[in-house]
Design goal:
The chain is mainly alpha-helical and about 850 residues long. Helix 31 packs parallel to helix 33 (about 655-670).
């Protein structure tokens, strides 16, 4: 038996202490018994070759030190030979770890390849890298993985876990403990720590700094200034805020944008990959399929791709199917509670991790966070100031409080290169904040301020939507789309009818231009039927907007009802402006219903009023529909004059939407006159304007006329391409009534090419589509009516027409685009 002074026993003991390991830790890593390790360190036993290799591997010794380790085991008694001496420390009892203290990973890190590449490139260029992010986003896991993989580039890694440290004066002790630095009697602990850290190139990992932020910041600053070889990697829900720090926000895992995505691209979405991996543990045999993929995508999206939330959700698959899990996510905080028992308490439930952050906020920060819960999606600083301010939080303080919430990773700030910053809450944080808002009893007041702000935005935008700045304002409203909808929802649910009518009608030209027409009409229908006191002006404005949206979608009788009520009330109130608008609307309806004489009478009456007030925008539309009335009576020259007058008024109003309409109408007139070159030029001008405005429906109208021009030139291939491009846009927009119009253009094209059965089938499909939408058939396409009449005299065409009426709208679109009909149902076996 070897005496207790053996070189190996002493070297083993020193190496273990230098690594910051207890005897139990090293024994577990080397898969030997604690008693056996104690005998080795006491010199009571000699190691076997297998034990030597296990110990060297557990200590992470490089090749040269493994040789010294093995030589010591066979060196016999006596003092250390010079080449076997352990690496000296700056002071007896102070040993810097040579090997990483990073715990081994129990599961692979998923979906972080891009982040790891970025961090590995960044770390050599900074001495203080702080990973920030909301609770549960994976800061600690990413930092540990990074530290483990770069440990060989340093003389050692100290892992300082601060989550369980509650007192500021314990932070330095935690650092010392991680480095195996003992406190000397009568000496401040910082001195031996600095002495050790100055001597070696070390990586210090400070994990979970947010609850001891000031102390961590002060200590980090001292260590970096005193130890030039030291690099610090920190994790915190907010930056330390000291000179030289490089904060790096850890993003959520990537999620599919929609429920429809290519399963072969699963690895592109880290959230899906993580969820599927954890789900397979909870439900052996679980795989992603076409059937469950939509539910998985929605779960990942609703949980914001937050790793902790995804792992907690996957744990519920012990008892639930994936679709059941998705359906129960409305109450995330009750559902996501079965965490890893070995994890810190704050990471065992979704609520606990957010409670940890919430406790660090002061009262004003909590109020602003709660108010942010009423927003849907991203919003502006001005909106946050309008909604969050109050008696306790003046508007002048909101920016500073918002910046603190951004720093604490509770609010996400995004600043595009060419625009102002936008702010939002992750959905999990929003639900948590909403609970606190509702518990405080301030939710009604916050939602009212939210609605008032967006009414003011809509009314500010309204005059801009028909002049030179309309593109800018259309984009501003599009960005705020979800908040506009949220505000409308609140006005309906709270019975604040007047505020809702102001908002829905103020958005009229946005509803029209951006293809949200049916949605706008639905809001106005609901609000106009609700009881409540409304000033006549706002009701008139809403009636006109509802009539316009009904008319433009082909609901002519409903539009006539709205316009008639608007005319009646405006005449009673002496509101001449709304009388003129109502008369214009009634004229449009009459023209659409095949009553051009009545339409012209209404438009003439409207024109007299509009000219007296100098409203170029409204006057442009009166001339436009006078042109439509003339066209309905085949008065081509008169129609041309009216459309030119309309174009001039729109140019005076700087209304590009109106100009696009007038140019399209003039192109159609040129086509009817046989000027195909002029028609094509006008339509392309209209197409360009509509495209710039983002008005896809305007684009489709111009494409239809370009298709008709190509047909007149007998260029049927070009006509088909124009019609197809327009129909695809209409399908994407869900514009059912306009899809029927497009199907009729395809029918006319088929008839011109001698495909009478196809033409009859398309006419039948268009008719049933229009009937199901409650839309009046246009009277401006006699060639379509001729196809229908012709089909009645041909048994084959008549059968095709009936077949067309059995097609769903989706099948009819497919048939128009590529000629494919749905497969017949299988025969019923008896």
């Amino acid at each position: 038996m070897l005496p207790k002074t053996t070189p190996f026993a002493t070297l083993l003991r020193n190496e273990r202490r230098a690594a910051g390991l207890t005897q139990a830790d090293l024994a577990e890593r080397a898969s030997i018994s604690v008693r056996g390790l104690q005998h080795l360190e006491a010199g009571d036993a000699s190691p076997t070759q297998a034990t030597l290799r296990a110990l060297a591997g557990a200590l992470g010794l490089p090749i040269e030190e493994r040789r010294r380790f093995e030589a010591a085991a066979s060196a016999g008694r006596g003092e250390f030979p010079s080449d076997l001496s352990p690496t000296p420390s700056p002071r007896a009892g102070h040993h810097a770890p040579r090997t990483p203290q990073i715990p081994a990973e129990l599961t692979p890190l998923v979906g972080r390849e891009q982040e790891l590449r970025a961090l590995r490139q960044l770390l050599p260029r900074t001495r203080l890298l702080t990973l920030t992010g909301t609770g549960g986003c994976g800061k600690t896991r990413l930092a540990l993985h990074l530290a483990y993989n770069i440990a060989s580039e340093f003389d050692g890694v100290w892992l300082v876990e601060l989550a369980a440290v509650n007192q500021p004066d314990m932070v330095l002790r935690a650092v010392a403990q991680a480095g195996g630095v003992s406190e000397e009697p009568g000496q401040r602990l910082i001195s031996p720590c600095l002495e050790v850290l100055r001597q070696r190139r070390l990586l210090l990992l400070l994990d979970n700094c947010e609850h001891l932020l000031d102390t961590c910041a002060s200590l980090t600053d001292t260590l970096l200034r005193s130890c030039p070889q030291l690099t610090i990697l920190a994790t915190s829900r907010e930056p330390l805020g000291i000179e030289g720090e490089h904060p790096w926000r850890v993003p959520s895992l990537t999620v599919p944008a929609t429920n429809s995505w290519n399963l072969s691209h699963q690895e592109q979405y880290g959230a899906v990959e993580l969820f599927v991996q954890r789900a397979a543990v909870m439900q052996p045999g679980f795989v992603l399929t076409e059937r469950n993929a939509p539910a998985v995508a929605e779960i990942c999206r609703r949980l914001d791709g937050i790793p902790l939330a995804l792992e907690l959700a996957a744990a519920r698959l012990r008892a639930l199917g994936v679709e059941q899990l998705r359906d129960r996510l409305s109450d995330q905080f009750s559902l996501l509670t079965s965490g890893n028992r070995a994890a810190p308490p704050r990471q065992q439930t979704l609520r606990a991790t957010l409670d940890w952050s919430y406790r660090l906020l002061d009262d004003h920060e909590r109020q602003v966070l709660a108010c942010l819960a009423v927003f849907s999606g991203r919003t502006s600083l001005e909106a946050v100031e309008a909604v969050s301010c109050g008696p306790e939080v003046p508007v002048s303080q909101v920016l500073g409080l918002l910046a603190r919430l951004v720093d604490r990773s509770l609010v996400v700030s995004e600043t595009p290169a060419d625009g102002p910053s936008r702010y939002h809450l992750l959905e999990t944080v929003r639900q948590y904040a909403l609970e606190h808002l509702e518990a405080s009893g301030r939710d009604s007041a916050a939602r009212a301020r939210h609605a008032v702000h967006y009414v003011a935005l809509a009314e500010q935008a309204e005059p801009e939507l028909t002049c030179a700045s309309q593109i800018e304002w259309l984009e501003r409203l599009e960005i705020e789309r979800e908040n506009l909808r949220s505000a409308l929802t609140w006005t309906v649910s709270s019975g604040n009818v007047e505020l809702g009518l102001r908002l829905a009608s103020g958005l009229l030209w946005w509803w029209i231009t951006r293809g949200h027409r049916l949605e706008g009409l639905d809001w106005l229908r609901r609000l106009l039927t609700l009881p409540g006191q409304v000033e006549p002006h706002w009701r008139l404005k809403a009636l006109h907007a509802a009539g316009t949206l009904a008319w433009i979608q082909g609901f002519q009788q409903e539009a006539r009802t709205f316009y008639a009520e608007c005319l009646s009330i405006s005449q009673q109130c002496g509101d001449h402006a709304h009388s003129a608008l109502a008369l214009d609307g009634l004229g449009r309806v009459a023209i659409a219903l095949g009553e051009p004489a009545q339409g012209r009478a209404h438009e003439d009456a409207s024109l007299a009023i509009q000219r007296s007030v100098g409203n170029h925008h409204a006057t442009g539309y009166v001339f436009f529909f006078l042109g439509s009335a003339a066209l309905a009576e085949d008065a081509i020259e008169d129609a041309s004059l009216q459309y030119h007058a309309s174009l001039e008024e729109f140019r005076l109003a700087q209304d590009r939407f109106g100009q696009a309409n007038a140019l399209r109408a003039l192109g159609d007139v040129a086509r009817r006159k046989g000027d195909l070159v002029g028609a094509r030029e006008r339509e392309k001008q209209s197409l360009a304007l509509a495209g710039v405005l983002g008005n896809l429906e305007g684009v489709t109208l111009a494409l239809d006329v370009l298709g008709a021009v190509a047909m007149d030139a007998r260029d049927y291939s070009a006509a088909r391409a124009y019609f197809a491009e327009g129909l695809v846009h209409l399908r994407d927009l869900g514009a059912r009534s306009r899809i029927s119009d497009s199907l009729e253009w395809f029918a006319v094209l088929a008839e011109a090419e001698g495909q009478t059965e196809r033409a009859a089938r398309l006419v039948g499909a268009a008719a049933v589509g229009r009937e199901s939408s409650g839309v009046s058939a246009p009277v401006s396409r006699p060639r379509t009516a001729a196809i229908h009449l012709k089909s009645l005299s041909s048994p084959t065409d008549a059968r095709a027409w009936r077949e067309g009426r059995t097609l769903s709208l989706a099948d009819a679109v497919t048939y128009a685009l590529d000629g494919r009909l749905p497969a017949p149902p299988p025969p019923i076996s008896l």
